[in-house]
Design brief:
heterotrimer; A alpha/beta (102); B alpha/beta (130); C alpha/beta (135); A: Hypothetical Protein Ychn, Chain: A; B: 130 residues; alpha/beta; Hypothetical Protein Ychn, Chain: A; five-stranded parallel sheet; 5 helices; 5 strands
């Protein structure tokens, strides 16, 4: 069953993103929101892990949370897509369940 | 599609409640049904009408109450978590001999079974927390 | 969809530092009455919830760890612990409380509820679930 994984923690605070990527299945979707958006940044110590994960999962980031934190699209790792809340809802519909990595 | 929502954090320390509000609004806009929002852990603090945030800040409790009224959404505060944290409705006030209650309009206090039922009844359960 | 859903409780937080572990366990106990197909996963700091020898006397707060031993009586007997999370914390299954249940399909033989699984196996178990409750 396809799953939407949500990650709302900075990867520099706790390993929610790392654990999510370790346990996510092939072709699953991952949405980074709240402080989870920091996991989408280029050049960080987790960027390589995230880039590698893009081979097997789709990664999205919530635009509203990016904007609130002063992060622009050009700071993101290539291949990560920005969605709005409408897109967040659509992701939960397209996948069979939602797994929140708090 | 029928959604169940779980909110695990209070209205101001953590973004979870605002995220849940925004998600619920977007889901309603897209024509989905919100079967229930279940408030657990410190999330029960979303259910007190006694909050008075500054005028230039969002009133999260009121936002939930208004959304519930407008769209007839079932806002359920977990009784066990609420008792620990002092969220009280009239029934709980009477049962536990308290001198006041503070439940906000549109919220009701009920058991954890309401969360499990949401998991069973809904097509999707979405958890917002810390 | 059948009447019975597969419910997975994912526990990723250590006990006592925050209340999440204890209140998660309260959900599991209530949820057990709904006769769904229940599993528990312990990942990341969640594995610390199962460490044996917990004693909160000096803290003066409730020691809820004995409750895990009662899960078998509630027909909650699929308890998956991720090996990678144990390894990362220098723990082995010997550091965990022995949790058991009586198998009614096998003449009530006492069996272990805890299964240590690899990340790949845990991913497969998560894949099969209908509802995931995260704590």
């Amino acid at each position: 069953m396809s799953t939407l994984h949500t990650v709302n923690k900075s990867p520099f605070d706790r390993p929610s993103l790392q654990t999510c990527l370790r346990l996510a299945g092939k072709d699953h979707a991952v949405l980074l929101f709240e402080d989870g958006v920091y996991g989408a940044l280029q050049g960080s110590t987790v960027a390589d892990t995230v880039k590698k994960a893009l081979d097997t999962v789709s990664i999205y980031v919530l635009g509203a949370d990016l904007k609130a934190r002063g992060l622009s699209e050009d700071k993101l790792i290539d291949g990560i897509k920005i969605v709005d809340y409408k897109g967040f809802v659509e992701l939960t519909v397209e996948n069979d369940k939602v797994n929140a990595w708090l | 599609m029928k959604f169940g929502i779980q909110v695990n954090e209070g209205p101001y320390t953590h973004e979870a409640s605002v995220s849940a509000l925004n998600f619920v609004k977007a889901a309603l806009d897209a024509g989905h049904e919100i079967f229930r929002v279940f408030f657990y852990h410190d999330g029960v603090n979303n259910g007190t009408r006694l909050t008075t945030p500054p005028q230039d800040d969002i009133n999260i409790v009121q936002s939930w109450s208004e959304l519930a009224e407008k769209h007839n959404i079932d806002l359920v505060v977990c009784v066990a978590a609420a008792q620990r944290r002092g969220i009280v409705d009239e029934g709980e006030q009477e049962r536990n001999g308290k001198d006041a209650n503070n439940i906000a309009p549109g919220f009701r206090i009920s058991g954890l079974g309401q969360l499990i039922e949401a998991g069973i009844q809904c097509d999707r359960l979405v958890v917002f927390g810390d | 969809m059948s009447d019975v859903k597969k419910f997975m409780y994912v526990n990723r937080k250590a006990p006592y530092g925050t209340i999440y572990a204890w209140e998660a366990l309260e959900v599991v106990l209530i949820g057990a009455a709904f006769e769904q197909d229940v599993s528990l996963a312990f990942v990341d700091d969640g594995v610390f919830q199962l460490v044996k020898g917990q004693d909160t006397t000096e803290l003066g707060i409730k020691n809820f760890s004995p409750t895990y031993s009662a899960l078998g009586d509630y027909d909650v007997n699929k308890i998956y612990v991720e090996k990678e999370s144990l390894d990362a914390r220098g723990l082995t299954i010997d550091d965990l409380m022995p949790l058991t249940y009586e198998d009614e399909d096998d003449d009530w033989a006492e069996k272990d509820s805890i299964r240590v699984v690899t990340a790949a196996e845990m991913a497969e178990i998560l894949e099969q679930q209908d509802v995931v409750l995260s704590f």
